[in-house]
Amino acid sequence: MVTTRRSGFTLIEFMVAIGVLMVVLAGTLMALGSYYRMQAMQTDEILLQQNFRYAMDTISNDARDATAFTNPGEIPDNFRMSDSLTFTMPNGNIVSYDVEQPSGSTTWIIFRHEKTADGADVVGSSGPVTEPINQVLNVYFVNSGTKAIVILVGAVGSGSNRRLVSSVSLLYARNRSGAT
To answer: 132, 143, 2: which is closest to 72 by C-alpha?
Structure first.
């Protein structure tokens, strides 16, 4: 009896090898997709935190120079929550911060306005503090007399992977004498 030696794979061996290869490739692609989604979410979070940090620094700098937080018609010791924060500066100017949504946009910008005591805009002192941010959920300003709390809240990710990001700062108007 003559035995023939065969080389190569049978069709069943070939199909099993392809099946194993497909399972390994599917697992690898799922891991890569998860990695890139997580990396994009972390990048969004870093950008959001950078914008929040810059906004907090800018607001804090004005708060340090301010003579008081302005609460029109309020008793000074009562806390007031609003969508804007207003300072009285030593030179009599009024600086306010609020969140604006440009028309036709889904993004938000934390904006700084400065007006003189008679209500005229101070040229070159008003403008956006942050880049347009579509992850901002809300901004809260709580103030009373010479104290204020600024709370910035945003979200990154989507669906079940959505995470909240917040930044909170307690500010004091330290320039009570009105001297610069």
So the answer is: 143
- Domain tally, the chain: 1
Please indicate, yes or no, if residue 77 is contained in any of the structural domains. Answer: yes
Number of H helices, E strands in the chain: 1, 9
Closest C-alpha to 80, from 139, 170, 142: 142
Model pTM greater than 0.90? no
The Cβ of residue 169 has, within 10 Å, a number of other Cβ atoms equal to 17
54 Cα distance to chain centroid: 10
Q: Which two tokens stand for residue 30?
A: 């799922």
Q: What pLDDT, on the 0 to 100 scale, is given for residue 176?
A: 57
| 180 band by pLDDT with thresholds 50, 70 and 90 | very low
CB 132 within 8 A of CB 123: no
Q: Give how far the C-alpha of residue 177 lies from the chain's centroid of Cα atoms, to the nearest Å.
A: 34
Domain that holds residue 65: 28-172
Cα angle value 57/63/64 (rounded, 5°): 90
**Which residues on adjacent β-strands are paired with residue 80?**
143
Alpha-carbon span 46 to 28, nearest angstrom: 27
Residues of the chain by 3-state class (helix, strand, coil), percent to 5: 30, 30, 35
